[in-house]
Structures are given as C-alpha cells and as structure tokens.
C-alpha cells in the first residue's frame, strides 16, 4: 500500500465556513476526497468573525507571541469532517467586512500583513510548531498563502515539500516595496530569485518561484498562463519552472449538487427520468416572470464582470430573444453590466428575467429548470458552473478557454453522431461567436431525440472529486521523490 501522507493546506477561505469563490470549494472538498487515496489533510485558515462563530473555542495547539508583530493562537477543531487549524489573531481578522474587503468594498490596507501572517504561521506549523505534528507537504492556495513556500525556502531548515495552487492568476497580491522589511524575510529575498516583482513585493510571484510544484485548476489554463497574454506578467517565470507546472481540473460536491436528492427543486430527477425536468422548467419560468415557451431557456449564473464576458451578452441579448430563446440572468457584479441587464428585463419583460443577487437556492433551481447555461468567459481557470450544468442536464454553452474547454465536449458533427456531445463550444466572447452558438443550440433543441441524448451524455459525466483527488495524491507522492531544489 502507498505510504500515508500528511499534508498541511493553507487557504484564506474554506467552504462551507467562508466562501467568496472557487478557491473555497476546492479547499473544502479536497481533504475529504483525499482520504480514499491515503492522504490526511489539515487546513490552516484565518479566524474571521464568522469562522470563530462557527468553530467555537477549539483547542489551542500552539501560540505565537510575535507573528510579524502580532500575538496569535492556533486552535484545532473539526467541522463537517474537515480538520481545521484556525489562526486566531483578532487584530488581523476580527473585522466587520469580508475576508479581503471592508464593508465599503475597499481592500483592507493591511492585507499584506494579514496574509503574510497566515503564510508565516503555515510555514512554522510545517516546521513543527504544533507538538506531535509534522506534515510531509505544505499545500498553499493562491496569493494569500503563497508566502508560506517562500518562508520555508529562505529558512535554514526547509524539510517540507511545497505545492502552490493558482486558482486565478489575475489575483497576484502585489504590494509596495516598503512592506518588505516588515515581512521578516532575509534581504536576499527581495530579488528576482525571491519576491521582487517589477520593483514591488509579489506574493504570488514569490510562491511560484519558491514552491516545489505549481498547479492550476485545469490543464488548458496551465498552458494558457505560460503565454505572454495569459501569463499576466508571470508567464516568463512559469515557463522557466517547466515541468513543475501542471493543471488538475476541479471537481464539485456531488452531494450538495445532486438533482436526485436536491431539496431546493420543485421536482427531483436523475438521468433515467430527465422528463421530470419539465416541472422545474415550468416553475423557473413562473418564478422569473417569463412567458411559457417551446424554445430553449438559456441561463446565466455568474459574477457579472468583464472576465465572464457578460458585457457582450448584454450587447447581444435582444438578438438572442429575437431568435426565440428566453434568457435568465442571476448574479451580481459591475454596476454597468447589472444596469444593462435590468434595463433588458424591463424592455423584454416576458423573455428576459433578471435577479441581481447571489442566491444559492435559485442557482440550483436554474440548473434544474433552464435548458442551457451560457458561460462566455474571456478566461476561466476552471469554472464550476459548467460542471453543475452537466450534473443537472443543463447543457453548457462555453467559450473555448481554460477549464471550460477541458470539461465540455462540443456538439460538432463527429461528437453528435457518436452520441458523446454534452455542450456547445464557441471560440471567443464576441457577438458573432455567441449568436452562432445560440443558433446551433436551438437547432439541436428542436430535435427532441438528439436533445435527450445530449442531456443524458451530460449527466453521465463524472464531475466528482474522485479523479482529481487521485491526481493530487499522485502529485504529492511524486514531489516527495524530488531531490532538493
């Protein structure tokens, strides 16, 4: 049997305790999924107010009298099967806003300190700060934890292997050089072979340089970030890391997202009873105030941002409904894009339904009731929405980028005839591309037999964490064989 591995995960958010995006889903799902691969994972996270309320007191397993000038305790607690180590430092985390932003929507001015402290605590725990616990590997997530591998790399006793996962390269944690002397790193760390990044301190840049392995959340995104355009200033460094960079697709929580047992739906169903989706479709049309229709209902559940390509959808929405389709939009984001969709819903009251909100229950009802889910992202590291769509038989319409390209099989001639098509892929977030995709979708939708086959193919997909967790376990065991860098 393979050796049992101990992994310390360091993350700024963990579902179901605190979530702002896909990072939390991965950090929350991976520990449980790894158990079957004989990997034991503890997760270090900050003690935000909501976290402290959820986890209670816990047991103090170590204390820091001077963690970058701050006193802090680490408390161990188990929540929903997750073994958590919560960094309790009220001066850093006991705040009214969210994990990263004030209640007015601005970045906290000391975010550099809040997450450098999290990283340093992770490095110290990896080196034995908790009596009786010495992980084999430290797995850091995104810029907020990316200094942990840096602290270990510049330590005199780096005995722990390190893995860094990039969930979205657009968020890099770049700060002015004046903070460097407060990070507790040696002077030589402020260099190209360290955290220096165009004269600033780059948390993610440092982590990419210092980690033994760098992963991202899909194989296609792992290739895209090696390019000048996709690399966002870090492409050269990522290319330099060569084989140390790889992509592993995210899974989803198939218990939370299960059309057969989903209490949020008007009617549950499975792959053999797809006809029951009609009840959810009728209920969704009614909930969104839309007219009954024999044409497809296309949905969007997303942050309404430029990255997600939704400025273009707002531009072509009228053309979409002119083709016969209805449009359902659920999400929040840029005020300009929100306003554009709200105006469209007024002008086309029976064809376009808009809900400017983050609504988990409605997200489930949309996936169970809409015919297709439109995701025209300009870049998309992995994406979870298309995986929910596959699980619920809601056909994904996606741009050919990142994880979208890796998880959807386009309904081209060969795939349609082989019966394995499960979605519609278009080239880019441009008006013509999207409208051509809508035409293709409507054509297939009007052939009930083929549409049913496509829904069945979608629902047959394994979108669980099983395969991805095995790939992470293989990566951990691989990195343990590495000679020192």
UniProtKB/TrEMBL annotation:
Reactions mediated catalytically: [(1->4)-alpha-D-glucosyl](n) + ADP-alpha-D-glucose = [(1->4)-alpha-D-glucosyl](n+1) + ADP + H(+)
Biological role: Synthesizes alpha-1,4-glucan chains using ADP-glucose.
Keyword Transmembrane helix part of the UniProt annotation: no
Chain's gene name: glgA
Transferase found in the keyword field: yes
Keywords: Glycogen biosynthesis, Glycosyltransferase, Transferase
Protein name: Glycogen synthase
A GO molecular-function annotation: alpha-1,4-glucan glucosyltransferase (UDP-glucose donor) activity
């Amino acid at each position: 049997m393979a050796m049992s591995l101990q992994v310390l995960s360091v993350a700024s958010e963990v579902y179901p305790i605190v979530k702002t995006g896909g990072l939390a889903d991965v950090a929350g799902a991976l520990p449980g999924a790894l158990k079957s691969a004989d990997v034991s994972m503890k997760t270090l996270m900050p003690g935000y107010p909501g976290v402290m309320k959820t986890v209670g007191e816990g047991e103090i397993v170590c204390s820091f009298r001077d963690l970058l000038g701050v006193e802090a305790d680490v408390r161990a607690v188990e929540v929903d099967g997750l073994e958590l180590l919560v960094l309790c430092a009220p001066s850093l985390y006991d705040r009214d806003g969210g994990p990263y932003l004030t209640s007015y929507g601005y970045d906290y001015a000391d975010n550099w300190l809040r997450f450098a402290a999290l990283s340093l605590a992770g490095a110290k725990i990896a080196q034995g700060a908790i009596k009786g616990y010495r992980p084999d590997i430290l797995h850091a997530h995104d810029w907020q934890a990316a200094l942990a591998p840096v602290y270990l790399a510049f330590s005199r006793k780096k005995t722990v292997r390190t893995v860094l996962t990039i969930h979205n390269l657009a968020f890099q944690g770049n700060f002015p050089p004046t903070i460097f002397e407060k990070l507790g790193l040696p002077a030589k760390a402020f260099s190209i072979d360290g955290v220096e990044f165009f004269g600033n301190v780059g948390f993610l840049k440092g982590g990419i340089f210092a980690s033994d392995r760098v992963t991202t959340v899909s194989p296609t995104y792992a290739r895209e970030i090696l390019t000048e355009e996709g690399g966002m200033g870090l492409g050269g460094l990522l290319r330099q890391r060569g084989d140390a960079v790889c992509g592993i697709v995210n899974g989803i929580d198939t218990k939370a997202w299960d059309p057969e047992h989903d209490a949020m739906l008007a009617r549950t169903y499975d792959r053999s009873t797809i006809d029951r989706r009609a009840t959810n479709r009728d209920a969704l049309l009614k909930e969104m105030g839309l007219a009954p229709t024999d044409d497809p209902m296309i949905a969007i559940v997303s942050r309404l941002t430029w990255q997600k390509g939704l400025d273009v959808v707002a531009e072509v929405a009228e053309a979409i409904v002119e083709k016969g389709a209805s449009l359902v939009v659920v999400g929040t984001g840029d005020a300009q894009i929100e306003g554009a969709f709200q105006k469209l819903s007024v002008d086309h009251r029976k064809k376009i339904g808009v809900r400017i909100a983050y609504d988990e229950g409605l997200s489930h009802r949309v996936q169970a009731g809409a015919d297709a889910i439109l995701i025209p992202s300009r870049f998309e590291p992995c994406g979870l929405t298309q995986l929910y769509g596959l699980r619920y038989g809601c056909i994904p319409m996606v741009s050919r980028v990142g994880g979208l390209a890796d998880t959807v099989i386009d309904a081209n001639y060969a795939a349609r005839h082989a019966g394995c098509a499960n979605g519609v892929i278009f080239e880019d977030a441009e008006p013509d591309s999207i409208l051509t995709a809508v035409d293709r979708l409507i054509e297939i939708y009007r052939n009930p037999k083929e549409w049913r086959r496509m829904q069945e193919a979608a629902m047959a997909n394994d979108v669980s964490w099983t395969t991805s967790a095995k790939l992470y376990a293989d990566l951990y065991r691989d990195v343990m064989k590495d000679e020192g860098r």
